[in-house]
Amino acid sequence: MGCLAAILRRSPVILLDFDGRISSVFAGYPASQITEELRGLVVDQVGELPPALDAVTSPHEFLSVAADVSPELAQQVETALQTAEIKAVESAIQHRA
Fold it and tell me: Please, which domain of life does this record's source organism belong to (predicted)?
């Protein structure tokens, strides 16, 4: 633990990925489910799923591609994704060392 403490003391910034070794953020609310919900949102908003979004499997990639389709659509997808991420965190599974 002394080595880790030394690293933390000299690090001005620490970036943690909370979906991995620390916890499984999407364990209770899978990313694939979120992506499907985002697809539904887009269909509701524009009447059909743009071809560019059809094969996307990751919610974050979905947001990125939505931004290429339309800035307004991307804003709606981003808002929905933020809500979904909060819901996912509430159902996350913490890993123990």
Answer: Bacteria
